């Protein structure tokens, strides 16, 4: 049965469908030795599909895990600049998995990883509004007006303002404030850009939950497989 190449690459546990589209457009995917183009289909029972010259096999058994990403790692499967990648932290798993969404290099905390492309797409698609909660340390102080602005939506330089967010002040000391911010969308560097838009400097950013899945006491650089109940939820 023929299926789109991005679905086959995702099902094989190599990348998300979105990344697969980028790989196809970059000319890194071939079908029977010929460079593929976006929209092409293939049948693995008769066609040879390869990424960077490495032929892919049938769909892998689904794996779902959570990683406590430390600062200093990039949320990619490889990096042309030689930076450390989150996939290095799960090499002992023995399966190829890729990140669901992103955390920038200087951010830390909960990162979901999987080889299930459908699950990744469901989690990342804007229409599903999966909540993400962050513990954010900002400087130097915060006013009630800034809290209201973050809560109701701010202009971060795109066509529309951010969606309403839940913002709670957890701690206040001279020169530093700790916030808990929950958002239901995932724009690039969204929390940092929201804070910058209201004049706050982000000193530390840690994701503590995605939907019903909480980071808990998982140590930085460590991972665990999700429970079946967490995947279902």
What does this molecule look like?
- The protein is of the alpha+beta class and 233 residues long.
- It is 20% helix and 29% strand.
- Strands 7, 8, 9, 10, 11, 12, 13, 14 and 15 form a nine-stranded mixed sheet that branches. It has a four-stranded antiparallel sheet with strand order 3-2-5-6.
- α1 (5-11) packs across α2 (17-25).
- It is elongated and about 65 Å long.
- The protein starts with a strand and ends with a helix.
- The model has no long low-confidence stretch (mean pLDDT 92).
Q: Round the mean pLDDT to the nearest integer and report it.
A: 92
**Largest sheet, described in full?**
9 strands, mixed
Low-confidence stretches: none
- Count of strand segments: 15
SSE string, helices as H and strands as E: EHHEEEEEEEEHEHEEHEEEH
What is the C-alpha radius of gyration, as a whole number of Å? 20 Å
| Helix/strand structural class | alpha+beta
What proportion of the residues form beta strands (DSSP E)?
25-35%
Helix segment tally:
6
What share of residues is helical?
Answer: 10-25%
What is the global morphology? elongated
Instruction: Please report the distance between the alpha carbons of the first and last residues.
Output: 31 Å
Task: Summarize the entry for a quick read.
The chain has helices at residues 5-11, 17-25, 117-124, 144-152, 190-197, 228-232, and strands at residues 3-4, 29-31, 34-35, 41-42, 49-51, 54-55, 64-69, 98-99, 108-114, 132-139, 166-173, 176-183, 201-210, 213-214, 223-225.
